[in-house]
Specification:
three-stranded mixed β-sheet; mainly alpha; globular; 219 residues
């Protein structure tokens, strides 16, 4: 999401290249597994079906399966929001809060993703698919996820600034969190997990304070 405007990337691209077709590739894929030829499936979202078919024909392999969609908004929102939620799941791991807590957080995080996505014009079935729920489960379950690893460090008590300075790769969720919280607020969408992650990253609250806030919310 663009920081100043909260626009999605396809909206930015259309402003810069108004006559060009825009396609979005998103889904549960760790690059090292794709490079090794292990099975993977992704969403290829594009308004123009003919363009989508042409791109899919170029990308598809026996172990790499792109599924076509015309919901560009949904594919992009899933890819953006899951990064922030993966940080939260990393915190759960780093703090030793258990598998029950992680499962609950994925479920409630998916509810936040869906609320925000629908408010921005996405379709529920896209968010429940590969580029939404599928990508969320992957990034919330493995230290191969850059965002999950960042959250794990936070949960272990390390400072966000130190963790980000040490990284050789980009944890996108750290930069998306404040933009997403602002966009959610403007749309009137309640995203308490996203707000909690943003508070941690900004140094506004400790892990214990964030947990207390989430666990004391009305049932």
């Amino acid at each position: 999401m663009e920081e100043a405007t909260t626009k999605l990337m396809h909206e930015v691209a259309r402003e810069e290249q108004p006559g060009s077709p825009i396609a979005v590739l998103s889904g549960p894929t760790f690059a090292h597994e794709v490079a090794a030829g292990l099975p993977a499936a992704v969403t290829l979202a594009v308004d123009d079906e003919a363009v989508g078919e042409a791109i899919r024909a170029r990308l598809a392999r026996a172990a790499f399966r792109p599924y076509l969609s015309d919901d560009v908004i949904g594919a992009e929102i899933g890819g953006a929001v899951k990064n922030v939620l993966a940080i939260a799941c990393g915190v759960v791991e780093g703090r030793g809060l258990g598998q029950n807590a992680r499962s609950a957080l994925i479920s409630r995080g998916f509810a936040e993703m869906t609320r925000f996505g629908l408010a921005r014009g996405a379709r529920a079935e896209t968010l429940a698919g590969l580029s939404g729920l599928g990508d969320l489960v992957l990034t919330c379950s493995s230290t191969s996820s850059r965002n999950f690893s960042l959250g794990k460090g936070l949960g272990e008590g390390r400072a966000a600034a130190d963790l980000l300075a040490d990284r050789r790769t980009v944890a996108e969720g750290a930069y998306t969190a404040p933009v997403l919280q602002r966009a959610a607020s403007a749309a009137g969408v309640d995203m308490p997990i996203v707000a909690a992650v943003n508070a941690l990253l900004c140094g506004e609250a400790s892990v214990d304070e964030v947990l207390e806030r989430l666990l004391s919310r009305p049932l």
